[in-house]
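User: My instructor asked us to take a sequence, write out its structure as tokens, and then describe one feature of it. I'm not sure where to start. Here is the sequence I was given:
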Amino acid sequence: MKKNKTCGLRFKMLLKMADITTTGFAEVLKIDNAQTVHNWYTRGVPDYRIEEVARKLSVNSEWLKTGEGPKDARHLRLVSDTGDTFDAQALRGVYTVIEPTDVELPFFREVPVAPGSNKTHVIVDNSQPIRLPRSHLDSLEINYGDAICAYMIGNSMAEKIGDGSTLAIDRGLTQIVDGEIYAIEHDGMLRIKYLHRMPGNGLRLRSHNSAEYPDEIFRAAQIEEQHIRVLGWVFWSSTLNKRRPPLPFL
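Assistant: Let's start with the prediction itself. The structure tokens for your sequence are:
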């Protein structure tokens, strides 16, 4: 049977209704290249994917493929182990949509491992999320589930990133690109630095405020010993002024 070219239009409509981008849906389907899913807008969903896509979007596979028959297919809906219906709304749990143009991101925080302890570790804190425009993430092809925020502490990155700035981090990009800014966890500390690869799998940490904070170089063995791990690439920052400017003539 000749393939119905309108399949892609129906697929695009379903993702729009569910507020799911092609990047987000690719993550759901465990497809590495989001462009593959985006191509379905024009080429239609491949036959071998039709049943799976229809189940995840809670529609009749025949309707998705040809436009014929009923759209809804409740008998195709899946039930999770907890008894919840798995449908298009459930897929929105991949990320939280606050408004049509906003995404809610949780924070990384450095906190004591126990009350009164000087030892810290980095945790995810969902109690005070921040909103960012979805367009920021889409333009950089960042999966919403990989994005998280943190606060800049200290002046090591001044004048690039001020103390107290809010940062957004892509946990999907941990491979080091020389000269880019990353968030790292260093023996329980949350640090923001320029990173550079060094011979022998070493690592150089560089501060923007290099006059006060000289470069730090770690050999491969030291990286392991000091529990240094890259949390993600810093792709956005916002700085709030510390004070209002005084008016000169009052």
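For the description part of your assignment, you could build on this observation: Residues 147 and 222 are 28 Å apart (CA to CA). Try explaining in your own words what that tells you about the chain.
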